[in-house]
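User: tokens in, sequence out, please.
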């Protein structure tokens, strides 16, 4: 579940999920909602493989990878398929399609995923993340 939080200059979201893997899935979903409006089909995939020292760094790397595909290849993610997730490694695939101005409308220009107030934690049985996007 994604909940958008009030923030003075950037866009911040809080993710609450039942599994660690779902935090990454919801991150991509939320980022896509910020970037593009419209029906996004799963016509192709882009590999995702990031290794970092901590879950917070994985969040930032996944966000940067998603933005690189969007801006660099004009490719819109529909969803993330997680194949492997640990505290230091994330492997999976972004399913989506090329940007089509006839079917997709750009929303916000997201410059990046920041470390400001970044949080990934387990609370009881749930996982929670707070992510801030520079817009």
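Assistant: Sequence out:
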């Amino acid at each position: 579940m994604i909940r958008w939080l009030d923030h003075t200059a950037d866009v911040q979201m809080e993710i609450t999920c039942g599994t660690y893997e779902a935090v990454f899935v919801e991150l991509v979903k939320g980022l896509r909602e910020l970037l593009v409006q419209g029906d996004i089909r799963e016509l192709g995939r882009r590999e995702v493989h990031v290794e970092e020292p901590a879950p917070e760094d994985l969040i930032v790397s996944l966000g940067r990878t998603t933005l690189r595909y969007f801006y660099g290849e004009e490719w819109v993610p529909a969803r993330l398929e997680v194949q492997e997730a640990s505290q230091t490694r994330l492997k999976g695939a972004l399913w989506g399609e090329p940007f089509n101005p006839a079917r997709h409308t750009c929303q916000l220009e997201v410059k990046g995923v920041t470390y400001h107030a970044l949080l990934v934690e387990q609370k009881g049985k749930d996982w929670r993340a707070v992510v801030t996007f520079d817009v």
